[in-house]
Amino acid sequence: MIDGVKQQKWWGWGEEGKAYHHEDKPKFAPFVKKMVGVDITAPVAPVPPFSSLDVPASRLSDALRADLESVLGAGFVQTDDETRVVHGFGKGVRDLLRVRSGRLSRLPDVVVYPGTQQEVERLVDAVVAADGVLIPFGGGSNIVAALEAKPDEHRQVVSVNLGRMNKVLEIDEVSGLAHIEAGVFGPDMEDQLRARGWTMGHHPDSFVWSTLGGWIATRSSGMQSDKYGDIADICRGLTMVMPGRVLTLRPLPSTSSGPSVREMVLGSEGRLGIITSAWVNVHRIPEVRELQAYFFPTYEDGLKACQEIVESDAAVMMARVSDAIETQYIMANGKKSSRLGSLSSKAIQKIMLQKGWDLEKIAMSFVGFEGSPTHVRYEKGLVSKIVRRHGGMGVGKGPGSLYDQKKYDTPYIRDFMLDRGLVADVSETSTPWAYAEQIHTNTVAAFQRAMDEIGVRGVVFCHLSHSYHSGACQYFTFAIADSSPDAEKTYDHAKRVIQQSFMDNHGTVSHHHGVGEEHSPWMDQDISPAGVFIQQALFDGVDPGRNLNPGKII
Ligand code: FAD
User: Which in 225, 454, 492, 501 has the greatest CB count within 10 A?
Assistant: First the structure.
């Protein structure tokens, strides 16, 4: 570990000592039992100690080590086992299954920590001269196998952790642009911006453990993207180190010099070079920030309301709605005394029953507002009318503020589930509005059919997470009750069925998680064989020696 560069657990999400607990949420264990038949209150075996792993030895040559140490200093060239394991995987459920069971495959031989742009340039040239493989590393939070070296990679593999490059370098207050180093983690970046009255407004669920460079390299989206844009909108310029050259794209509001090189770098997952800094849109911190909760009689009503909200004059920062099962999950996951828990109170249920709603079908929604008090009041008025038009009702801002406080704790639940033999993961897609209901219905049905066919219990639920003029992103969470040694195969089956359903129902292979190796098999369906041909030509042209994170995307 390097001072000042934080590192996640080798076996799971986030920091050591932090975990999900169910004891204060009395409805959660019965919910899981009902959905997938698993008793989460039963004792569990602890994760085996790191010392039980059989870590393959580093193959770093003395010559490359000497070159790297001369560029970076010996302290920033690490070959210890735990550092190599942490840098060898992302945080997809497949990664967690593998690392927990000691199937480590081809780990990086060395992890290096450059502190400056010049060091990145020199180390890239040194590694390429030695015909090594370079894999940039941000927070290691991707879930698409974007960091793993090929199992049969015979060359030396160098993981480049950008964590020391973590400063907001400059704010152009006239233009609303900030120049920021790529290795900065979300909270550190926002703290630096907020100290000067600015925010970037990009908040993925993985915010605490992901970096600016990683967001750009995977085309990330955040929960406030409806207002601030996806990272593809936010990132206006950047610097990227390539073998023997440096790409510099100035920050520009827009340009007609195409094909857009900026767009080629966005989502390039380390295949074109190492992003060292970026120019991003930043905004003054809004005076008011509020999340309101609403209920709809059905998910379909909620979807229609979200479409109308995005078409209205209310430029909300977030509008999400959960389907019936996800709504039940959220309510079961609320603490007994909390405002989320109280949503399932008898009083609210009574109102819903009076309205003739089926409690098994209700859909919960959060809508976020930001700006001056007058602006927020105006937006809330517009949204209330839309909600009512679609048969919904508001339940105030209490549940929303609780959701806001707890949103970054949610990822810990996946490790808790895995400890109990429940393999849980997510898949997300975007479609035009015309197919929004269809893709939801058909994907849920395809998953359930697949689980029935193999006789494994599983549950899938979904929320609309981002809205656009022409369509929306829907985010599916699925959990499979399989603690057998075949759990990874069962997961593969479920994941394949869901991804194929996206393709069959006018969706994209992914809306914001990127491609990696996980989604690569669907690329020709996603962008057509000709699109893959163009991408291949780009990668071959820029990186003829296949030194830059080979095997990702295509
Ligand atoms: P890493 O995982 O370290 O790397 C991802 C890819 O980018 C790799 O190919 C890597 O080589 C490349 N890369 C990293 N840094 C650079 C660089 N400086 N230059 C060039 N290439 C680089 N994603 C979202 O968009 N929105 C979400 O809400 C969201 N929620 C998540 C919740 C959980 C629980 C988890 C596990 C993941 C979630 N993700 C989400 C996915 C993930 O956090 C994103 O893909 C994120 O952008 C990855 O950033 P990172 O810094 O961790 O990158």
Answer: 225
The answer to whether residues 280 and 294 belong to one domain is no
Separation CA 135–CA 84 (nearest Å): 12
The type of residue at 458 is: G
Q: Ligand 1: which of 123, 207, 218, 228 to mutate, most ligand atoms within 8 Å of CB? A: 218
Strand 157-161 and strand 235-242: the pairing is unpaired
CATH code of the domain covering residue 196: 3.30.465.10
Could you list the residue range(s) of the whole structural domain that residue 111 is in? 58-161
| Number of domains into which the chain is organized | 4
User: Considering the domain boundaries, does residue 543 fall inside one?
Assistant: no
Q: Which residues line ligand 1 (CB under 6 A)?
A: 90-91, 135-143, 146-147, 162, 182, 204-206, 210-211, 213-215, 217-218, 220-221, 269-270, 274-275, 411, 512-514, 549, 552
Please pick, among 228, 329, 475, 491, the residue that the annotation labels catalytic.
475
Of 220, 276, 286, 225, the residue nearest 248 (C-alpha): 276
pLDDT at 87: 98
Residue with tokens 């975007």: 430
- Nearest-atom index, ligand 1, CA of 182: 18
Alpha carbons 21 and 250: distance in angstroms, whole number: 47
Whether 494 is covered by a domain: the verdict is yes
CA of 276 to the centre of ligand 1 (A): 15
Question: For helices 487-504 and 436-454, what crossing angle results, to 10°?
Answer: 150
Q: Which atom belonging to ligand 1 lies closest to the Cα atom of 272? A: 20
Is 436 inside a domain boundary?
A: yes
The residue contributing the CA closest to ligand 1 atom 24 is: 220
* CATH code, 333: 3.30.70.3450
Percentage with pLDDT > 70 across the chain: 98
Give yes or no: residues 293 and 371 share one domain.
yes
Residues 174 and 214 in one domain: yes
> Computed from CA positions of residues 420, 18, 144, 49, in that sequence, does the dihedral angle turn out positive or negative?
negative
Q: Output the CA 515–ligand 1 centroid distance in Å.
A: 11
Span 451-463, pLDDT tens digits: 999 999 999 999 9
Answer yes or no: do 181 and 268 share one domain.
yes
Decide: 289 and 369 in contact? Cβ < 8 Å. yes
Q: How far is the centre of ligand 1, averaged over its atoms, from the C-alpha of 426 (Å)? A: 14
Does residue 475 carry a catalytic annotation? yes
Residue type (1 letter), 275 = I
Residue range 31-66, pLDDT digits in tens: 999 999 999 999 998 899 999 999 999 999 999 999
Nearest CA to ligand 1 atom 4: 214
Contact 502, 429 (CB under 8 A): yes
Q: What distance in angstroms lies between residue 140's CA and the mean position of ligand 1's atoms?
A: 6
